[in-house]
Design goal:
Elements lengths: L6 E5 L6 H12 L2 E4 H9 L3 H8 L1 H14 L5 E4 L8 H9 L1 E7 L2 H8 L15 H15 L2 E4 L5 H19 L4
Parallel strand pairs: 1-3, 1-4, 2-3, 4-5
Helix pairs in contact: 1-8, 2-4, 3-4, 4-5
Length: 178
């Protein structure tokens, strides 16, 4: 279904299902799976929350950008951190070989799924509310997305199925006719 060098890049708010759905899609499509939050933690030896607490949200975004710019893989589902879209350079790099999928959920769903977001290592300004962050990021997710899957009323398997169906539609739309 994917071109030989193609990856699927998942973007979206914390709680949107990037990691969970990413693993399901990777299994169904026979692709590798990478969670860039885990790469950041491996590279720094710290959790995302520790980076934010000790060095600030800008430091986390810089580390994330570097991890994304260094990614050079094929045939993978890549779950990015929620703030990946703040780096235009990283997103341009990823889009060269990837289809970007925005797992879109409402702010209410974000609250319901992540609970106490202060423990999630979310890269946001100290004076920024989750609502402000949500609005800011939603515009960026939409800007980079090749495919948007609305997941508020779907479970993870349903999001996975909707995503694969959306990829099939994209492929058939792009295929030459005649």
């Amino acid at each position: 279904m994917l071109a030989e060098s193609n990856n699927l890049i998942f973007v979206g708010m914390p709680g949107s299902g990037k990691s969970t759905v990413g693993v399901l899609v990777a299994k169904k499509l026979g692709l590798g799976f990478i969670d860039t939050d885990l790469l950041i933690q491996q590279e720094t030896g710290r959790t995302l929350q520790q980076i934010v607490d000790q060095d600030g949200y800008v430091a986390l975004r810089k580390v994330e950008e570097q991890v994304l710019l260094n990614l050079n893989v094929q045939q993978h589902v890549i779950s990015t951190g929620g703030s990946a879209v703040y780096s235009d350079a990283a997103m341009r790099h990823l889009k060269v070989t990837s289809t970007v999928i925005f797992l879109d959920i409402s702010l209410d769903t974000v609250f319901a799924r992540i609970g106490d977001y202060s423990l999630r290592g979310i890269s946001k300004r100290p004076d920024q509310s989750l609502m402000e962050l949500f609005e800011e990021r939603s515009a960026l997710y939409s800007r980079y997305a090749d495919l948007t899957i609305r997941g508020d009323t779907l479970n993870h398997d349903q999001v996975c199925d909707a995503l694969i169906a959306g990829l099939h539609r994209m492929k058939h739309k792009a295929a030459p006719t005649g």
